[in-house]
Amino acid sequence: MLKVRNYSIRQKLTWMNMLVSGAALLLACTAFAGYELTDFRQTLVQGLSIQAQIVGANSASSLLFNDPEAARNTLSALTAAPNIISASIFTPDGVLFATYSRDNSPARPPMPVMNAGQIETYQFTADELILVRAIEFQGKRIGTVGIRSSLREVNDRLLRYAGIVVAVLLVSLLAAFAFSSVLQKATARPIAQLAETARIVSREKKYSIRAPAARNADEIGGLIDAFNQMLEQIQERDSALEAARDELELRVAQRTSQLEAVNRELESFTYSVAHDLRAPLRHIQGFADALTEEGSERLDTAAKGYLNSIIDSTRRMDQLINDLLGLAQVGRRELRILPVQLKPLVEDVVRDLALETQGRSIEWRVGDLPTVDCDPGLAKQVFYNLLSNAAKYSRPRDPAVIEAGQTILNGERILFVRDNGVGFNMKYAHKLFGVFERLHRREDFEGTGVGLATVQRIIHKHGGRIWAEAAIDQGATFFFTLTAPISTSARPEAVETI
Amino acid sequence: MHSPNAVLRRLKQLLYFAVAVTAFVVPEAHDLHAQTPKPTEYEVEAAYLSNFGRFVEWPARAGAATEPFNVCVLGADPFGPLLDAALKGETIAGAPMAAKRISKPEEAASCRIVFVGSVKDSQLNGILQSLRVSNALTVSDMSGFSRRGGMIQFVLDGNRVRFEINLAAVQRTGLTVSSELLKVAQAVRRAP
After folding, report:
1. Phi and psi dihedrals of A329, rounded to 5?
2. Which residues pair with A419 in a beta bridge?
3. Which pLDDT score, from 0 to 100, does residue A318 have?
4. Number of Cβ pairs < 8 A linking chain A and chain B
């Protein structure tokens, strides 16, 4: 049965048609054959009954006047009926009066017994019909006649019927098969085509094909139309999605180029502003120096204090302008990538810083450092900025310990600069690398707030990254890489604001 | 579960069994009847007398419907109560049959059938002549009865009672005898 379930609709329809027509035909043929058979039997009984009545009427005088000879003569007329095997006449007492047998066989099968009041009875055996009828003469029962008839004719007819039924069934089934083969095209073929189309669509994700439209406006036609409409909707949605994505990409590209343009403008603006600020500052410095050298004896103590403040401020401003120019230059400069031995480079920086921090107790530790492909000038600036930062924020320590080294994190080599200084609250770590962002008061630690921003810009320009870990009064560690991770493709130059 | 074939086979067996049972019962019944004593010659003749009327076409008579169908015995009566017994309850065309004893042929006007008992040979011709007026069917077991103008004469064929018919004599009275009766007659005398 499981196999039947997996038959195609075409096969199922064919089987259905054949079964239905076969069952209908079988029923009809059986009914007709059954009717014909009973009808024929009835006719047979009637015929035999008439013969019995004739025999009875013709043997009344024989019975009444005790003349078996005459009765035998009457019975012998039955020779003309080939189906009659034998016939007998009995007196009312049941005594055999006269008999006739076609093949002269003496054997006489028993006759069916008539009930009281019955005038006729009959009995069918496998191949015989036996009929017994009372002989009545002028309202009086004067004997009985029994006739045995062969059923060979009926049985032959039944056989012929069976043959015809089988032949009709076979021919009809063949015709039903032929018809259903033709008719199921209208039903099964569109379904099969629809199924095939659906298979192709889901396998190849091709939404442009369509199921062949059905000619009929029935459920199958509706199904095919709905299926095609669904495909169309999917196609429309696909193209809408594609258009939206294209537009988005275009917009991103536009925004990116806009931002890059703005960024370049800002950088050149910063550069020119810083550059132009220098000239007036030089004047202020020059006149302040002149005043110190030539007019200090004419100034009172208060005026001298103001003068010193002016000189101090101009120096700080000069520093600020230098830092901003450096930052801007990082953005404008083309990278000059070389293999750089970092250890001697860092030792160079440490030597400079040691001079700058004379009088302080600082323990410098330069660990093992690799050779890295990078811009040597910018790399030096990174280390300078980080190490000088470390020296600055570890000023309250005695001794201060400042370390530069490398470590492996998740299979990647990371450089670091560590100090045991005042550290910072990690809550503000995101502000660490912003321009002019400061986590400490200038009164405590001098600085322009540009150094770490410059460091980050250099590192990003190299495709690397930087982050810090710290806690208040626990020191700080800056981790960074100078190249992009090997595993991933070179990261695009980060877009950033100053 | 039985297959349809098995059920059919079972039905067939039942049928044969029923037939076999009747086969034993019916012949036994026949034997019982066969043992009844054989009827005497006069019993048979009385029965024949009650039946002859059924094979004859009777001309219409006034008041025939109410009148009994009389079977008369003329002269010596050999039947005694046998004839009355044979006719009791019998009817012909609605008329009840009855036995009647007459002593003279002239009394036969109301008779349909007249059985002539043993009479003297010399008297027979005269009797037959007288009876011709009554249009009755004449029957006798006297030898030479039918030859001499009687209509039906009983004859013994072995121990079987049979009869001869003088068709010419019957036709002369205007009666018609059924061919069925002629069929079982031992001899039929026709008009020369």
Report:
1. -65, -35
2. A402, A476
3. 87
4. 60
Q: What does the pLDDT look like over A284-342, one tens digit per residue?
A: 999 888 888 887 778 888 888 888 889 888 888 888 888 888 887 787 778 888 899 99
For an interface test with B, give the residue of A30, A64, A115 to mutate (most B CBs within 10 A): A64
Per the omega criterion (within 30 degrees of 0), is the bond before B192 cis?
no
pLDDT of residue B25: 43
A112 touches chain B (CB under 8 A): yes
| Dist. CA A346–CA A366, nearest whole Å | 7
Residue among A331, A390, A339, A392 nearest A366 (CA): A390
The phi and psi torsions of A345 (rounded to 5 degrees) equal: -65, -45
Q: Write the pLDDT tens digit of every residue in A326-348.
A: 887 787 778 888 899 999 999 99
Interchain contact B8–A (C-beta under 8 A)? no
Choose the closest CB to B34 out of A66, A95, A112.
A95
CA distances from A431 to A51, A420, A425, B147, B176 (A): 131, 21, 11, 170, 156
B73 pLDDT more than 90 = yes
| Residues of chain B contacting A112 with CB distance shorter than 8 Å | 22
Facing A61 at nearest CB: one of B22, B55, B92 = B55
- B27 inside 8 A of chain A by CB: yes
| B159 shares contact with chain A (CB less than 8 Å) | no
Measured CA to CA, the distance from residue B21 to residue B126 in angstroms comes to 63
A400-423: per-residue pLDDT in tens?
A: 999 999 999 888 899 999 999 999
Q: Which band of pLDDT confidence, cut at 50, 70 and 90, is reported for residue A34?
A: confident
- And the tokens for A156? 């032959």
User: Pseudo-torsion of CA A41, A43, A44, A47, nearest 10°?
Assistant: 160
- Flag if A110 and B27 touch (Cβ within 8 Å): yes
Rg (CA), chain A: 62
Please name the helix (run of DSSP H) or strand (run of DSSP E) that holds residue A148, with its range, or none.
strand A140-150
| Range in A94-103, A263-272, A395-404, A423-432 the model is least confident about | A263-272
Q: Is A64 on the interface with B (CB under 8 A)?
A: yes
Nearest chain B residue to A112 by CA distance is B22
- Tokens found for residue B19: 């037939």
